[in-house]
Amino acid sequence: MRYSAFSILKNAFSGNRNWAPMWREPQPKPHYDVIIVGGGGHGLATAYYLAKEHGITNVAVLEKSYLGSGNVGRNTTIVRSNYMLEGNEPFYELSMKLWEGLEQDFNYNAMMSQRGIINLFHSDGQRDAYARRGNSMRMHGIEAELLDREQVKKMIPYLNYEHARFPVLGGLLQRRAGTARHDAVAWGYGRGADQRGVDLIQQCEVTGIRRENGVVTGVETTKGFIGCNKLALAAAGNTSTVARMADLQLPIESHVLQAFVTEGIKPAIDNVITYGAGHFYISQSDKGGLVFGANLDYYSSYAQRGNLETVEHTIEEGVSMIPGLSRVRVLRAWGGVMDMSMDGSPIIDRTAIDNLYLNCGWCYGGFKATPASGFCFAHLIARNEPHQVARLLRLDRFRRGFAIDEGGKGPQPNLH
User: Fold this and answer.
1) How confident is the model over 80-98, as a mean pLDDT?
2) pLDDT at 6
3) I want to staple 344 with a disulfide (CB 3.0 to 4.6 A). Which of 29, 75, 263, 416 is the partner?
4) How far from chain centre, in Å, is Cα 204?
């Protein structure tokens, strides 16, 4: 069913009893051209673009839980492309351009809101760093504005501008950035892939990878063996676990990242704001809740929950930046399992096993990268060569010494 004003009106007269299901519930076939492990945003986007851009429809997406049950539904919905380094900048800009036409492309309301993101700075050194980032963006045709204190104050009057240690001196603004509804992104990609013949198989956990003569022949699952010509891993925080089934040891660690939402309040925060004195970021949802997060829990874990120390640290940062947050009640918190790479940048590449493909290491950047990740991963799977904007996101860059260290923090995943 194609969604439109006409379909809404038509179904209204039938008491909304004739809406078609979002996708089918197929049983797995014995063999597929491509199997994608992971039914999150990246796996579903990959399946969608494989079918739409390359005509490969004999594809199965295997998800051990329900579609969108992982990080795509456990993030703070921020979309941006304000990166600086060569390996990241063109990639995330491609993602931003795809975001801007995404809802029309897959005929689903992803609630894309280009409300702008402001990265605050609090020292002369931070100002210089943001000026450098903004200049790099502008040199590559990506808009960026460096705002002084008064310009930021006019846009965001409720910040703590007189903080003794971290006074707000200005910020770097990208107006095209914003937020999107995380669940709707997964649903839209899943629906679009299903319409093109892709099988979305839920409650189907991969328990083993079968190989013969050095190539993958299929996967063992809780629904039996499923054969394939090509196997693609897009399992986020569980990538290292699945990769070990093929005897791969990857340069990633799994860490918990917590996020929070408050009770609904009147419209107050028009933009996405990040705190330069910490790693705090916040926006307001359409329901009125303030959605925010900060640092990782810093220890490796596969659990989708965090600890109290990080909760306290996150809220302390938030109140330091916006004192008024102290009067708002937090409703709930959740945790996503991040696959943190050694340099803070993702990996989209073939592995040493000829027909095994890898998409991982997304750190904090996974949600905003969803369209470009799926687009470039599908290109790699279909053509066996990297897409132009993802050519530097290679698995062997750590061995070769070509790290893409956007944060400049060295080979420590928990610091990125």
Assistant:
1) 97
2) 92
3) 416
4) 23
